[in-house]
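Severity: low
Component: inverse-folding endpoint
Summary: output formatting inconsistent between runs
Steps to reproduce: submit the following structure tokens with default settings.
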């Protein structure tokens, strides 16, 4: 990990790690989907399950990324990825991330054609049944997120008072170039995730005015492909704060400026959780968000529900709550 991979405190950006995770997943799933004779394809990222950042990675450490296919449905592949950091001076290794990603194979001849996935050989029958349950659960959650696709983040011309949503709201505009894209001419999922994390980090830093790090990423859903030449707008806004964590909603909209026949559309969405740290790397209290409008109050309550649900899942663990 080099200085340009990290923030001013020397911690590697969450977006950089997410990009590495996606690249590993894309390689193994594309390799599997082309393991039999037939139409050639490239695996496209459809969804990333909740990812927790278990331990920070620092400049000078070596990142080891390992990926394994754990389930395959007729048209999708589940990949589980582990990231380990290694201090090459001491030999110390630690697990920093675990993630689950879902890919679909798209034909090289017709990008709108989803091909069938070669079967996976399971060592135990229970593995297939457990994978099928995970597949059905993520499929249901993807359907539930589609209702938010019409939600729009309006630009803020006059930022409000500190600790309000409008004060920290941020956007980034990016022109999609060839280096961002796959063989199909569509954006790599990892590129999109890195940009999303960058915007979420700006929102968190503006709110806290301290060093901030990514604590976790809720499920990232990729609703539609982003073509080369599109202008994408990545918008982030604070939705909820607990005592020591912040939830930030990030929406990605694509504008196909060279194609008048297609309108602007929602390409991806996710919730990022950040924590505030002191110069010594210790957690700091987070300034409490002050929702002003009815929509902001509604999003705050929804964020509180997600926070309490995740906190309940973590009960019984000895590590401190975010």
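Observed output (run 2 of 3):
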């Amino acid at each position: 990990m080099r200085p340009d991979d990290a923030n001013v405190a020397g911690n590697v950006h969450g977006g950089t790690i997410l990009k590495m995770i996606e690249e590993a997943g894309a390689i193994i799933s594309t390799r599997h989907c082309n393991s039999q004779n037939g139409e050639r394809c490239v695996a496209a990222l459809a969804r990333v399950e909740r990812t927790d950042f278990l331990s920070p990675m620092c400049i000078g450490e070596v990142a080891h990324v390992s990926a394994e296919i754990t389930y395959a449905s007729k048209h999708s592949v589940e990949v589980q990825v582990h990231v380990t950091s290694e201090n090459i001076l001491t030999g110390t290794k630690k697990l920093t991330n675990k993630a689950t990603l879902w890919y679909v194979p798209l034909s090289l001849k017709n990008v709108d054609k989803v091909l069938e996935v070669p079967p996976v050989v399971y060592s135990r029958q229970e593995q297939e049944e457990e994978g099928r349950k995970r597949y059905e659960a993520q499929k249901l959650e993807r359907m539930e997120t589609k209702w938010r696709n019409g939600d729009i983040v309006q630009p803020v011309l006059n930022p409000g008072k500190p600790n309000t949503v409008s004060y920290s709201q941020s956007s980034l505009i990016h022109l999609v170039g060839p280096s961002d894209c796959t063989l199909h001419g569509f954006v790599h999922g990892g590129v999109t995730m890195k940009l999303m994390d960058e915007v979420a980090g700006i929102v968190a830093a503006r709110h806290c005015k301290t060093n901030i790090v990514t604590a976790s990423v809720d499920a990232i859903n990729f609703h539609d492909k982003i073509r080369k030449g599109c202008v994408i707008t990545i918008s982030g806004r604070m939705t909820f704060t607990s005592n020591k964590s912040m939830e930030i909603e990030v929406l990605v909209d694509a504008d196909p400026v060279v194609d008048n026949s297609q309108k602007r559309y929602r390409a991806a969405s996710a919730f990022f959780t950040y924590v505030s740290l002191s110069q010594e790397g210790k957690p700091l209290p987070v300034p409490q968000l002050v929702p002003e409008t009815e929509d902001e109050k509604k999003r705050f309550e929804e964020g509180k529900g997600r926070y309490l649900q995740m906190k309940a899942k973590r009960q019984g663990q000895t590590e401190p709550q975010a």
